[in-house]
Design goal:
about 400 residues, 11 helices, two-stranded antiparallel sheet, 10-stranded mixed beta sheet, alpha/beta
Length: about 400
């Protein structure tokens, strides 16, 4: 059993209508201050830098806490803008230390964000870029949910802020930080929301704020080929690709996007990814499905496919979910697959399943939370119907 904490932390509050400064890049922040009449144009850059440090280094959520800003300016800021965090509906902690938050960005707009300790230098935060997904990868439970909409820049950054609130990591630590890596591996396909993802990375990576290096930010894609080069040019983020198969026939089944962008096109775009080198390797994600893609012959085919690409391969034991047509490969089979890759000189760590007891593992996000709330809604409807007077 995992440890479940604070499952009803919802706070009743009206959704703010004022722009949230947390989601603005530096140029956008300066422009917003001028447009709102809070500062004069010649002072905008200086004031934006001042606010930036309060928002992204100290993590303040109240303009009144900005003690080096004039009182009348603070009042004007509070009148025009907000720094409010979104509502944390649920917070769960696994027995292995994994944390999961269900965050309500707006009515009906909820995403899950997961913190995984002992990943990278210290710990990684898995953030979402969309509410739902359009890709329908057949092994992924998250992908069974319909797309609702893209997340805004503020909503992506808010996931990092919520995690840092909970981890007590304000102001931004220089050493021994618990949250050292960001991975865009949550709900959604990041490259279908590249504008907001790129702006969020600019904010998260800024050295005077949250200050997580771009080399510690990884964007995972199922292979939206036309957006790979723009991703590299705009973000300088590390690239991860959900590959899962070595031939088009199988990948068409597992990752339907492959029918639009087949493997040959995908590999050509990966080889052209800006900045790709031995120091900036691409990560290939490969979920291990029993009897489907886990044979030694598939391992050798994978080596042929990625030959010459600076890469590592993350082998992901499949996380079963109700109704899934797949099973996880046997551990011995996964180790034999990894050995083939290792002998060829590729790092191929087997990803330890984390947070399974709170449905925070890869491909599991939000499904159980949706199910629980749907059940509660049905119960309330039944109670209301039973208590209604007869016509």
């Amino acid at each position: 059993m995992g440890v479940t904490l604070d499952l009803s932390r919802a706070v009743s509050r009206a959704a703010p209508t004022a722009p949230n400064l947390s989601g603005l890049t530096r140029p956008q922040l300066a422009a917003a201050l001028v447009e709102a009449g809070v500062v004069r144009p010649e002072k905008a850059k200086m004031r934006a830098s001042q606010l930036w440090r309060w928002i992204h280094h100290y993590g303040v959520t109240d303009f009144a806490a900005m003690t080096d800003v004039a009182k009348e300016t603070r009042a004007a800021l509070a009148e025009a803008f907000t720094l409010a965090r979104p509502e944390v509906v649920e917070r769960q902690v696994s027995r292995d230390g994994t944390r999961k938050w269900l965050i309500r960005m707006a009515p009906g707009i909820e995403v899950e964000t997961v913190y995984i300790p002992d990943v990278g230098r210290s710990g990684a935060l898995c953030v979402s870029s969309q509410v739902g997904c359009t890709l329908n990868c057949t092994f992924c439970h998250t992908g069974t949910q319909a797309l609702v909409r893209n997340l805004t820049t503020a909503e992506i950054v808010a996931q990092v802020q919520v995690a840092r609130d909970d981890l007590d990591e304000w102001p931004s630590p220089k050493e021994d930080r618990r949250l050292s890596n960001i991975v865009f591996m949550g709900m959604g396909e990041p490259l279908y929301n590249l504008d907001h993802v790129a702006a969020a990375i600019d904010i998260i990576a800024d050295n005077e704020g949250i200050a997580i290096s771009r080399r510690r930010i990884t964007v995972s894609t199922s292979g939206v080929v036309p957006e790979l080069t723009p991703l590299g040019e705009r973000t300088q983020a590390m690239l991860a690709v959900s590959l899962h198969a070595t031939n088009d026939a199988l990948r068409d089944q597992l990752v339907p996007l492959n029918r639009k962008y087949p493997i040959a096109e995908l590999m050509a775009a990966i080889r052209a990814y800006p900045g790709l080198s031995n120091a900036r390797r691409v990560t290939f994600e490969y979920v291990m499905l029993k009897g489907v893609n886990d044979s030694p012959a598939e391992a050798k085919a994978l080596l042929n496919l990625i030959k010459g690409v600076p890469a590592k391969i993350n082998l992901i034991p499949f996380n079963p979910w109700p109704g899934s047509p797949y099973e996880c490969s046997d551990w011995g089979t996964i180790e034999k697959f990894a050995a083939v890759l290792n002998r060829a000189g590729y790092a191929s760590p087997i990803r330890t399943p984390r947070g399974r007891d709170i449905l925070a593992a890869c491909g599991q996000l939000k499904s159980e939370s949706e199910k629980m709330r749907a059940s509660a809604r049905r119960r309330l409807a039944q109670e209301a119907s039973a208590g209604a007077p007869e016509a």
